[in-house]
User: Fold this.
Amino acid sequence: MSELLCTADIPGLPGLEAIRLRAGQTGARRRVRWPYVAENRSFTPWIKGGELVFITGIGRHHSLDNLFELVHEGAATGVAGLVILTGDAYIGQLPAALLKRADALQLPLLEQPYSLPMVTVTEVISRAIIAREQLAWRAAEQQASSLLERLQLRLGDLPEREEFMAPWFAEHQALLHELSPTLAAWLQHGGNLSAAAASLGSHRNSVRYRLNKLFRATGLDPRRPADLNNLILAHLLCQSPDSGEHP
Assistant:
């Protein structure tokens, strides 16, 4: 249950039993990042990848050629799958040729009866996505090898961690990333400029200049314990959880 929600899971969610996976079973283990209801002829400009895209048929007639276009667009943009709503008032049924094409492209293609309310479908899927993500985060935290790794996982990916640090480093995060190797060497060698410079293959004065640039920009004085702690923590939160870097 700790696995993230994938396309194949959709028909098994409570209340969504009427949805059927009709084609593209070989690609049905794709992660569903979020549901998206497409109302325009092309959905590419409004997605980021991983969406489960719903084609409702409302507002315009979907010809067979157009449905083929949508299947190819879905395969090209990396969506989690397409859900086509069927019913006499809109799209009557999914043609066999369309299912065959989705199979060939390994694009999951699901069919949803129009009588099933979209508000119910999107709410159930959205709640399932969040619940699965929370379970996955908890499982990852339990397997964390250090307090730092657990904190990084709790705060989220790098953009989320940067947002967390923004009140202190909003204007200087680019500089923090740029000087990360220099700061890491300085911390790993206990503030010894000569040892840090040797490990970087740089001159001692160059290392001093870079560090002073960072200290001046951030207003942090490494001689003050609170400032040094903030600097170390910000540096570590900018690393990947599995980098194994410690001060």
Observations:
- Residues 118-142 form the longest helix (25 residues).
- The mean pLDDT is 88.
